[in-house]
Design goal:
Low-confidence stretches: 111-121, 418-424
Number of domains: 3
Shape: rod-shaped
Mean pLDDT: 85
Number of strands: 14
Number of helices: 9
Order of helices and strands: HHEEEEEEEHHHEHEEHEEHHEE
Largest sheet: 7 strands, antiparallel
Distance between the termini: 60 Å
Length: about 475
C-alpha cells in the first residue's frame, strides 16, 4: 500500500479524484439547494394565488358558507381575529402549520346575521403581503406536505380575517429526490471515469520519466558515463529534465576524464624527479665520491614544487573558497617582481581586491615565471584600475602565443614546446593554477599579443 501511494501516478490520480469529488459535492449541493428554493418559491406563489382568490371573495362580502374553497383539492382555512375557524374546505380532514388545527367551523362561529347580504358589507382591504410557512394537511384521505400562504383581509363588519391556502410540495420533494438519486448514481461513476482517465494520462506523461530512471540505473550499474538518457520530443518539463540530466552526465564525464588525465599526468610528472633522485642517491650510496649533491637538491626542489602545485590544484578542485582579505595588488606585484632580472613594474597605488593574498601572489609568480621563460630580454608588469575592475598585466617580448593555443595553454600539463625539457619548462601547471585561482576570485585570466610582440597576460578581478 505504501509503495502504491508512494508513486507520483497514484498520488496524482488520488488528488484529481478528490478534487473532482469535492467539486461535484459542492456543485450538487448548490444544485439541490437552488432546485429546492425554486420549487418552494413556485409553491409559495401558487399558495398565495389561491389565498388571494379566497380573500377577494371575503373582501367582496361573500357569506362564509358561500365561499368557493374547493381549489384543486388544496387545503383552505379562513380564521377570524380571535383565532376561530369560520370557513374551511370540504375535503380538509387534518391540518398543521397554520393559525389553527381546526378543520370544521363550529355552528354559529363567525356568522353575522347583518352581514348575510353583500350589499350591506362595508369597505374591505386585502393585505398586500402574504406570510409563507410550511406545514401539512390531510385532504380527501391523502396526507402531504404543503406550503401555506396567509393573506389578511381587513373588513368593517367582520373584523380582521386571515385566509390560509396551501400548495402541495410533492413536486418539490419528487424533483429533489430524483436529482439526489441521479447524483448518487452518477457521481461515483464520474469519479471512477476521472480516476481511470487520470491514471492513464499520468502513465503516458510519466513514461519518459521511467525511461530516464531506467537509463540512469543502467548507467549507475555499468559506470559508463558516456551513455545518455532518452530525450522525449514533447518540449515540456520532462524533456528539459532529460536535457539537464544529459548535461550533468556530460559534465560529470568530463570531470572524471579530467581527473583521470590529471592522475595519469601527475604520476608521470612525479616519476621523473623521483627516479632521478633515487638514481643519484643509489650512486652516492655505492660511490660517495660520485654523489651529485647539487643535482639531488635540484630534483628535490622540483619535486617539492610539483607536490605543492598538485596540492593547490586539489584544494581548488575541492571548491576551497578564497579568503576575503583586502590585498594591495600593486604592492603584491612589486614584491613578486623584486629580485627578478629584466622585470619592470608600473603600478598605480590604491588598487585593492578581496581574496587570498597567498593565492594571488602565486598567480603573479606563475605569470612572471612563464614570461621570463619565454622573454628575449624584458618583462613588464603593470597594475591599474578600470572602473570597478582591477587589472594586473604581465607582458614579455618573446614569440607570443599562437591564436589557436591561447586557451589550451591554461589546461593542466600542457606544454606548447614538446622538445622543451622539464627542467627548463616545468610541469605545465603554472598557467592552469593561475586560471583556476582567477576564476575562484570571480575574475578572468586571458592572453593576447603584447605591444612588444610577445604575450600579454591580463588578470582582471573585482576591485574592492
Amino acid at each position: 500500500m505504501n509503495r502504491l501511494f508512494g508513486s507520483v501516478r497514484a498520488r496524482a490520480t488520488l488528488a484529481a479524484t478528490l478534487v473532482v469529488a469535492v467539486a461535484l459535492v459542492a456543485a450538487g449541493t448548490a444544485v439541490l439547494l437552488s432546485l429546492r428554493s425554486n420549487l418552494l418559491g413556485q409553491a409559495g406563489t401558487q399558495a398565495e394565488r389561491s389565498a388571494r382568490q379566497v380573500a377577494a371573495q371575503v373582501a367582496a362580502g361573500t357569506p362564509y358558507e358561500d365561499l368557493a374553497l374547493d381549489l384543486d383539492d388544496r387545503p383552505v382555512q379562513v380564521v377570524d381575529e380571535d383565532g376561530r375557524l369560520v370557513a374551511a374546505g370540504e375535503d380538509l380532514e387534518r391540518i398543521g402549520g397554520t393559525g389553527t388545527d381546526a378543520v370544521e367551523p363550529r355552528p354559529g362561529d363567525g356568522h353575522d346575521d347583518d352581514a348575510d347580504d353583500a350589499d350591506d358589507a362595508g369597505d374591505a382591504e386585502v393585505g398586500a403581503r402574504a406570510t409563507l410557512s410550511d406545514g401539512w394537511a390531510t385532504v380527501d384521505g391523502e396526507t402531504e406536505d404543503y406550503r401555506f400562504a396567509a393573506v389578511t383581509v381587513e373588513t368593517e363588519d367582520r373584523g380582521t380575517l386571515t385566509v390560509y391556502a396551501g400548495a402541495p410540495l410533492s413536486a418539490e420533494h419528487g424533483a429533489v429526490r430524483t436529482a439526489l438519486t441521479v447524483m448518487l448514481i452518477g457521481f461515483p461513476v464520474l469519479l471512477v471515469v476521472v480516476g481511470a482517465v487520470t491514471w492513464l494520462v499520468t502513465r503516458r506523461a510519466l513514461r519518459p520519466v521511467e525511461g530516464i530512471r531506467r537509463e540512469m540505473a543502467a548507467i549507475t550499474r555499468s559506470e559508463d558515463l558516456a551513455r545518455r538518457v532518452p530525450v522525449p520530443g514533447t518540449h515540456d518539463e520532462v524533456a528539459r529534465l532529460a536535457l539537464t540530466t544529459n548535461e550533468t552526465l556530460a559534465a560529470l564525464q568530463s570531470s572524471v576524464e579530467r581527473q583521470r588525465r590529471f592522475v595519469a599526468d601527475a604520476s608521470h610528472e612525479l616519476r621523473s624527479p623521483i627516479a632521478s633522485l633515487r638514481t643519484q642517491l643509489e650512486v652516492g650510496a655505492a660511490h660517495p665520491e660520485l654523489l651529485d649533491v647539487a643535482g639531488a637538491v635540484e630534483d628535490t626542489v622540483r619535486l617539492q614544487r610539483l607536490a605543492a602545485d598538485l596540492l593547490l590544484l586539489a584544494r581548488l578542485d575541492a571548491g576551497e573558497r578564497p579568503a576575503d582579505a583586502r590585498v594591495d595588488l600593486a604592492a603584491l606585484a612589486r614584491e613578486e617582481a623584486a629580485g627578478r632580472a629584466g622585470v619592470t613594474v608600473r603600478a598605480a597605488d590604491g588598487v585593492t581586491v578581496l581574496g587570498s593574498r597567498g593565492q594571488l601572489a602565486r598567480v603573479l609568480a606563475n605569470l612572471l615565471d612563464n614570461a621570463q621563460r619565454h622573454a628575449r630580454s624584458a618583462v613588464e608588469v603593470s597594475v591599474r584600475r578600470e572602473g570597478g575592475v582591477a587589472v594586473a598585466a604581465v607582458a614579455d617580448d618573446g614569440d607570443g602565443v599562437p591564436a589557436g593555443d591561447r586557451e589550451r595553454i591554461f589546461e593542466r600539463f600542457v606544454r606548447l614546446d614538446a622538445a622543451r625539457s622539464r627542467d627548463d619548462g616545468g610541469a605545465g601547471l603554472g598557467l592552469a593554477i593561475a586560471r583556476d585561482v582567477a576564476v575562484r576570485h570571480e575574475g578572468t585570466l586571458t592572453v593576447r599579443d603584447a605591444p612588444a610582440g610577445g604575450a600579454l597576460f591580463e588578470l582582471r578581478l573585482p576591485a574592492a
